[in-house]
Amino acid sequence: MAEASSNPAPVAAATASPSASANNSADPSRATTPANAVVEKPPDDSSKLKTFLGVLRRLTPQLCYRFIGVADLAAVRFSLPAQLLEPTPNLEYWNYLDRPETFISIGDSDEALGRMLGTLRFWFTKDLKYVKGKPCKPYNSTLGEFFRCNWEVEDTSPPLKHQPNSQPSSSAASVVGRNVKISYLTEQTSHHPPVSAFYIDCPEKGIVARGFDQLSAKFTGTSIRVIAGAHNLGIFITLQKHDNEEYQLTHPAAYLGGLLRGSLSISVADSCYVTCAKTKIKVILEYLEEGWLGRSQNKVLGVIFNYDPENDTKTKIKEVPDKDILARIEGCWQDKVYYSLGSQPFNKATEKILLIDLNPLHPVPKIIPPIEQQLPNESRKFWEGVTNAIVGKQYGLATTLKQEIEERQRGKAAERKAANTEWQPRFFTGALTPVGKPDLTPDGEEALKGLHEDNYELAPNKELGA
């Protein structure tokens, strides 16, 4: 299995270690590292970058130049040494519930505009790891690998004002100490192309989210541009208590910069959209990477407006007529984001209302099944040996164990090819379908039900991908 081919996203943002992310669960436990394994000095960020560039140079003399113009880094196969990896499984890392309380509050408002504002509040917290962490590289997912967890959070998100002269409306019960459970299931459903399906469920609040995660990355010479892959159509959120209103949230392009400086950073300079066909409300968000004289500002501008789902042609803020605008968005996606009601320009608005302040927020810990109740292809257990070796600074051992996993996956793929059989996901109905919105199999429904009930027992997989 090649690092680039199994997960084209080259980096993520470092957060807490796997053990730290399970503060609300039984300790995931770690297998002991062999006593005779060599302890190596942990690399710092600059030495990691030098090692990465050294890997590229060793592969072929022209490889660094070959990266420029490559349509997708997934087409370039190479394996990174373990010291360049964050000891976190990719499926565990790639979730959108850094602040679950903003997710469960999306449907609280009695008004359509209020629910769209709630969706945007969730949007700006879903990848808090980028704001609070530094770029890093988690493990690549293997075919059939899966991850599951819960969050339990207080239902305390404040209601959002949606009319100039009215009080904010909310159906959330403001009961101190009232916890709500959110369950998450994800599975690597395809290896070529690398795709994982995910499903988020909160029965108590009647809210579901699902989608396919697939990233495409291109080296531009000074940075790496990461965009959603062809099968990643965004996050689809359904509000079951509002006549199954569905919201589609698309992803903007992100950039990994600082390759030449040796100081990596993530920026966003693109547009993205949130649409709800049932309420006929759409959002255009425009991210601005740099300001005057190239000074980074991480600014985001947006408009919320009425649109025609049958004639959805507006993709730029400037294209939206004032008469259709319900609210405007402005702020810094790494700091504070505000909104103003009505169509007037944001700087002339009489009231600028805080949508979200990211400064005091940090990713919320997950509740993960105890390691003894996990299956062999469950992310924490599957990567346990590699994680223990990295945490124990046994980088040579970690690289060897990682290469064994890669060889095992290649061997399984060869067996399927010889038998003329295709891989079938266990928890989702198709590797890449239904388009954009994966459905659960009976096993997937059973696994999700078990999470709701804190019952983590699952029958072993009939077949493993690695």
Description:
- The chain has 466 residues and is of the alpha+beta class.
- The chain has one domain.
- Helix content is 21%, strand content 24%.
- The protein is built from eleven helices and 18 strands.
- The longest helix has 25 residues, at 395-419.
- The chain is globular.
- Residues 446-455 have a biased composition (Basic and acidic residues).
- GO terms for molecular function: sterol binding.
- Residues 1-45, 428-466 are annotated as: Disordered.
- This is Oxysterol-binding protein-like protein.
Overall pLDDT, averaged? 83
Question: DSSP helix count?
Answer: 11
Helix fraction? 10-25%
The description of the largest β-sheet is: 12 strands, antiparallel
Low-confidence stretches: 1-35, 55-70
Q: What is the end-to-end distance?
A: 10 Å
According to DSSP, the number of beta strands is: 18
Strand order of the largest sheet: 3-4-5-6-9-10-13-14-15-16-17-18
Q: Structural class from helices and strands?
A: alpha+beta
Which term fits the overall shape?
globular
Strand content: 15-25%
Topology order in helix (H) and strand (E) letters: HEHHHHHHEEEEEEEEEEEEEEEEEHHHH
Q: Calculate Rg over CA atoms.
A: 22 Å
Number of domains: 1
Looking at this protein, list some descriptive labels.
disordered N terminus, globular, about 475 residues, about 25% strand, alpha+beta, 18 strands, 11 helices, twelve-stranded antiparallel beta sheet
